[in-house]
Design brief:
about 30% helix; two-stranded antiparallel sheet; single chain; about 250 residues
């Protein structure tokens, strides 16, 4: 009796060859799939990183958009729901954030105590843990000494002439203002935003019974802080990065 294994039938041999061929095809496909995945991984990682950068760049814009919503938040949480202003003399936002040492010197020097540093590192932080002002809570009064600029050791705040300060631009909302449409027949004679402005008529004035914000506005936020309308103020300072140079009226 022969010890040789029985030879496979032709049909069995063909099936075996087909299985081997299919296995080789799958191996090649797997090889190319793995190779393609490794090739595309740096591109995908770069795309994700770019998307994150874009998302971060919109954080200040989302904060500025809150200008029309108003807020009932407490002082401890309001920095995340109200638009923020940087102190007078601040560099452009990106340079300010990279230059500021977060030393607290400007916070200590401010006589109005309007400059704060958001120390919230465990949650949303639109201020980047750098000095900021929330005008509705405590506005910059553009004090005589402008001490914050001169005590800054890092250069994030640069000594600037009063007329050249640019924290933002006030925007008046005629629809919610107690002056209503600005027509003499239905207008209440509220001029608090004009009367209390520390800059004066080069920044804001009454023109044809309407509030008119001029290029002289430095964005200190006193008008917004003193505005009597609630819950939203009828005049708000839009941070410098989002304003336009033109005079602003309703």
């Amino acid at each position: 009796m022969s010890d040789e294994p029985p030879k496979p039938r032709p049909d069995e041999q063909k099936l075996g060859e087909q299985a081997i061929h299919q296995e080789r095809v799958l191996d090649r496909r797997g090889f190319f799939t793995r190779g393609l995945r490794e090739f595309l991984r740096p591109i995908a990682d770069a795309a994700v990183e770019k998307i994150q950068e874009v998302e971060e760049s919109f954080a200040p814009l989302r904060a500025a958009a809150a200008v029309s919503r108003g807020s009932t938040s407490s002082r401890s949480s309001s920095s995340h729901t109200l638009p923020i202003l940087r102190p007078p003399g601040a560099l452009d936002e990106a340079d300010f954030l990279s230059t500021c040492s977060r030393c607290n010197a400007c916070v200590t020097a401010c006589p109005a105590q309007c400059i704060r540093i958001d120390a919230n590192v465990d949650g949303p932080n639109v201020a980047g843990s750098a000095p900021f002002i929330v005008a509705q809570e405590s506005a910059c009064v553009v004090c005589t000494g402008l001490e914050c600029m001169f005590v800054c050791p890092s250069g994030a705040l640069v000594p600037t002439r009063l007329a050249e300060i640019d924290m933002g631009l006030a925007v008046w909302n005629a629809d919610t203002c107690v002056r209503k449409s600005g027509q003499e027949s239905d207008a209440q004679e509220c001029t608090i935003c004009i009367d209390d402005c520390p800059i004066g008529e080069v920044a804001i004035r009454l023109h044809e019974s309407k509030i008119q914000v001029l290029d002289g506005c430095v964005g200190c936020g006193v008008c917004e802080n003193h505005c009597p309308t609630r819950p939203a103020r009828s005049i708000n300072v839009v941070p410098r990065a989002f304003n336009t140079p033109a005079s602003t009226t309703a």
